């Protein structure tokens, strides 16, 4: 359904769905497709890195995965929807716009609460004992994450029920400031303030620890602090991308802002979801190493062929089977797997592990 949406400044020809009409259709399509591709692949790598990297596989890092999942929904649903509208030759589509705004607000609120949880978890991991940190159980994390997604989904959906909130697509101001102010304070300002306090407190405590003459930090402590610094940069990047749009959105309730400025800043804020995973790969060595392993696993595998021909014992097949896999994830050639079920020593010997170019190569 195509709707002629009433903009406050129609002469500027700015669309909340298809960007600026002064740009060529091909340029807009290439830009949106590139953002969707880079953002989606990067966020998948970011989520997978926590699963495959030994150091990152901690229950507290689930909150980082939650941020990556929210960014993945934006880069995989919000941005491609605009590309589809451009491909269809449409200018404005009210249904698509409201779908995008619903997903964007939902993921924005989830990201804010997750960033606060990341900062809180980093503070307890670095500044408190292991016994205190162990109280953060998997069950508590699961219920907390489910509660975050459910609460944020309800808040995002309620803005369309009885027109409680500002209409992003048509920019019709209903003047119901109390609802918007309440949501902004409880779900945005308070969590961001908690995150900022936790990071400042963490940096202060770590400097105190390191100033002690008898303090010798273990390597895991340095790794945790390096990851915390990366999370700090991610928090700052989030503020840099979203605060300008938040300020313009607040001003727009009092004095109408140019549609060109309003929607360009909105798309700038949305584009944050496409670069957050890149930030982790650049600043953190564990994420960077996991990205390299994932790239090698996805792009450097050789063809695996299976042969049913009978051959004499001790004679290798005509084509060697070499599989490049992520270290520690060979389910067939690991010693534990080989010893299961009373396997013979001959099978274990034939399942030899070598290293080539810094990667695990297993020959079957």
TrEMBL record:
Give the matching Pfam families: 7tm_1
Its GO CC terms are: plasma membrane
Q: How does it sit in the membrane?
A: Multi-pass membrane protein
Q: Which UniProt keywords apply?
A: Cell membrane, G-protein coupled receptor, Membrane, Receptor, Transducer, Transmembrane, Transmembrane helix
Lineage, top-rank taxon, reads Eukaryota
Report the main location listed first in the record: membrane
| Example GO molecular function | G protein-coupled receptor activity
Q: Does the keyword Membrane apply?
A: yes
Task: Tell me which PROSITE patterns the record gives.
Answer: G_PROTEIN_RECEP_F1_2
Compartment(s): Cell membrane
Membrane spanning stretches: 29-51, 63-87, 99-120, 141-161, 181-200, 232-251, 263-283
- Domain (G-protein coupled receptors family 1 profile) spans 42-280
The text of the family note is:
Belongs to the G-protein coupled receptor 1 family.
* Protein name from the UniProt record: Melatonin receptor type 1C-like
UniProt organism field? Sitophilus oryzae (Rice weevil)
**Gene behind this chain?**
LOC115890080
């Amino acid at each position: 359904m195509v709707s002629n949406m009433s903009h406050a400044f129609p002469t500027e020809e700015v669309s909340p769905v298809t960007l600026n009409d002064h740009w060529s259709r091909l340029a807009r399509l290439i830009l949106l497709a590139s953002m969707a591709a880079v953002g989606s692949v990067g966020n998948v790598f970011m989520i997978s890195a926590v699963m495959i990297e030994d150091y990152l596989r901690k229950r507290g890092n689930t909150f980082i995965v939650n941020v990556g999942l929210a960014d993945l929904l934006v880069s995989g649903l919000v941005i491609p929807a605009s590309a589809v509208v451009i491909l269809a030759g449409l200018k404005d589509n009210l249904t698509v716009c409201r779908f995008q705004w619903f997903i964007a607000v939902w993921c924005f609120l989830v990201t804010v609460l997750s960033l606060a949880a990341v900062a809180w978890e980093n503070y307890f991991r670095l500044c408190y004992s292991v016994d205190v940190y162990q109280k953060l159980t998997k069950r508590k994390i699961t219920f907390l994450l489910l509660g975050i997604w459910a609460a944020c989904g309800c808040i995002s959906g309620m803005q369309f029920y009885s027109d409680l909130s500002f209409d992003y697509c048509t920019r019709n101001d209903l003047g119901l400031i109390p609802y918007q102010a309440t949501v902004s304070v409880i779900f945005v300002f308070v969590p961001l303030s908690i995150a900022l306090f936790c990071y400042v407190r963490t940096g202060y405590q770590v400097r105190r620890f390191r100033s002690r003459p008898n303090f010798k930090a273990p390597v895991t402590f340095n790794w945790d602090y390096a990851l915390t610094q990366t999370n700090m940069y991610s928090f700052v990047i989030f503020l840099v991308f979203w605060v300008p749009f938040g300020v313009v959105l607040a001003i727009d309730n009092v004095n109408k802002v140019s549609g060109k400025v309003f929607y360009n800043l909105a798309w700038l804020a949305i584009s944050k979801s496409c670069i957050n995973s890149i930030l982790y790969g650049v600043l953190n060595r564990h994420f960077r190493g996991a990205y390299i392993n994932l790239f090698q696993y996805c792009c450097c595998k050789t063809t695996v062929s299976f042969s049913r021909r009978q051959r004499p014992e001790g004679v290798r097949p005509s084509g060697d089977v070499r599989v490049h896999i992520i270290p520690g994830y060979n389910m067939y050639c690991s010693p534990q797997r080989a010893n299961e079920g009373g396997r013979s020593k001959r099978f274990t010997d034939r399942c030899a592990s070598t290293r080539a170019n810094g990667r695990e190569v297993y020959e079957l």
